[in-house]
Structures are given as C-alpha cells and as structure tokens.
Design brief:
A hairpin with a 6-residue loop joins strand 4 and strand 5. The chain has 127 residues and is an all-beta fold. Helix content is 0%, strand content 46%.
C-alpha cells in the first residue's frame, strides 16, 4: 500500500512563502496522478491542485491559481507545492494524495478520485 508523508508546513506571515513536500514510501509515484488538498477548521476538504503522471498537465483551484505551483520529481518519489503570497485564508491542514485513475486532473480536484492520503501538515498564516 502506497504511503505518503507530507513535510514543510509551519507558521508564516502574510505575504510569505512555503514549500510543501510529500514523499512516498513502499513504491514509486511514477504512475499516479498526484494532488494537494487542504482543510481549514470547520470546512470541508478542498482540492487545490493536481498534476498528471507525466507532469504535463496541472490544475489549480481558483483560490490558489497564480500563487501556488505543483511539481513532481518521480526519481525521488516526491511531489511539491510551492505556495507564494500566502494570506490568512490559506491557513489549513494540507494533504497530498495519489490516484490510480489516469484520467483525473482534467478539471476540479475531487476527493473521491484519490485512493491514498498523507497524514497532513499544518500551515498557519498569521502575523
């Protein structure tokens, strides 16, 4: 079973940047579509970005478009989320996820399309 572990979360002031990483163990990520989700207190988990197995296509939710960038390094079995221009509304627990479905990541990032999840990393944007 694929296992995912996120890292890189923390406290950052408004306008700051963070880079989240997600490393896979037990197998490589080559054939998985990968995504990042986040969940703020009292809110549902939101899909914010995904990247296809080839890395050729990405998708971003409107809430993060132009500020966040997803990337992957299959040689290291890692996926990343570069987050810039952070604001307090970005405060949440961030999760990486992997999907066996090659056809996802063509639109909205849907929780039901993803089979494996990390444990999450907290991102807090506050002065």
């Amino acid at each position: 079973q694929l296992q995912l572990v996120e890292s890189g979360g923390g406290l950052v002031p408004p306008g700051g940047s963070l880079r989240l990483s997600c490393a896979a163990s037990t197998e490589t990520l080559d054939y998985y579509v990968l995504a990042w989700f986040r969940q703020a207190p009292g809110k549902e988990r939101e899909g914010i970005s995904c990247i296809t197995s080839s890395g050729g296509n990405t998708h971003y939710a409107d809430s993060v478009k132009g500020r966040f960038t997803i990337s992957r390094n299959d040689a290291k079995s890692e996926v990343y989320l570069q987050m810039n221009s952070l604001n307090p509304e970005d405060t949440a627990v961030y999760y990486c996820a992997a999907s066996r479905f090659s056809w996802v990541c063509r639109g909205a990032v849907s929780r039901s399309d993803y089979h494996f999840w990390g444990q999450g990393t907290q991102v807090t944007v506050s002065s």
